[in-house]
Specification:
Helices cover 23% and strands 38% of the residues. The protein has 141 residues and is of the alpha+beta class. The strands form 2 sheets. Strands 1-8-3-5-6 form a 5-stranded antiparallel beta sheet, covered by helices on one side. Strands 2-7-4 form a 3-stranded antiparallel beta sheet.
């Protein structure tokens, strides 16, 4: 079994849900060597998350943003952690709901996604800045 690991810094993005599958594949060319294995993508932040979902229709990502803003609103007077801005505590909550990592099976050097699946960066801050990922791939070559 082989194990490959790399750190990746994503460019800053606007608040919202962004497909990053191609960037992950580009950052980890060793993925092509794995015949059968797994890939974990982990985000090193507490105000952004990762998830796997629809990769074709961009309105799905718009609807994700709409839904999460309704479920976890800004400016809630009950939040105590508010000194980093009105979007900070909601960003922590949204990131916890979605999670900080995704796992993808690897088959013959490619992600074994379903037809319409891709990896989203879930940016919950208005100015979150560049985001750091750790990508780990392991399996049989």
């Amino acid at each position: 079994m082989k194990i490959y690991q790399k750190g990746v810094r994503l460019r800053p993005r606007a608040r919202g849900f962004h497909l990053i599958t191609a960037e992950i594949i580009q950052a980890m060319p060793e993925l092509a060597r794995i015949r059968m294995g797994m890939c974990q993508v982990f985000i090193q932040h507490t105000s952004a998350g990762l998830t796997i979902n629809e990769n074709a229709d961009p309105t799905v990502r718009v609807d994700f943003e709409t839904y999460f803003n309704k479920v976890v609103p800004e400016n809630d007077p009950d939040y105590e952690h508010d000194y980093e801005g009105s979007d900070d505590m909601p960003a922590h909550l949204k990131a916890s709901l979605l999670g900080s990592s995704v796992m993808i099976p690897v088959h013959n050097g490619r992600f074994a996604f379903g037809t319409w699946q891709g990896i989203y960066l879930c940016e919950h801050r208005n100015d979150g800045g560049a985001r750091s990922l750790v990508i780990t791939v392991w399996g049989e070559e």
